[in-house]
């Protein structure tokens, strides 16, 4: 049955099928990246907002999926063909873009997600090793060739960080970056850039707010 929830469920499922967030799917289709955000699915007065037929056409063109496949995704469990178990919603973790992550109010002093303004992305229960996992969406080409625009990085702020790990670092000035940890001492850290066109970075520990390990990427 055609309904507001079923259409948005299909859009979310289409994004998941192609290992994208809803905003990553919108960006790939040439739409405003916020077009499919959950905050855009209802108006300020609580009325349902429907995606346009043009938007649906563009995401199908961008992914190569057919309308029949999209309609199949409108059914509960349409991603894998199995109906969702009653009373067991798909698990999710907080999602935010790198650009937004630099703003205040999204993390506590330990680098754990807090506050409002997060979207949500599904992530398998088996991979949720502990509370506090969150997702960052890559924006731009600064992390090529390893991570592309729209890729999703899963970050575990509670995991031990070792040399050679891919990490996310936030400085006390609000800069957020993904790098490879080359060296860490009580006084500072050395970070290798993922993109050879961007410089390596070095920080005194007094300038670092937190550092967290990347445990998974949607490549």
Automatic annotation (TrEMBL):
Top-level taxon in the UniProt lineage: Bacteria
GO molecular function: DNA binding
Alphabetical keyword list: DNA-binding, Transcription, Transcription regulation
Signal peptide bounds: none
SUPFAM superfamilies assigned: LexA/Signal peptidase
Domain Peptidase S24/S26A/S26B/S26C: 94-215
Keyword Transmembrane: no
Segments for region (Disordered): 25-54
Matching PANTHER family: FELS-1 PROPHAGE TRANSCRIPTIONAL REGULATOR (PTHR40661:SF3), PTHR40661
UniProt-recorded name of the protein: DNA-binding protein
Protein's organism: Sinorhizobium saheli
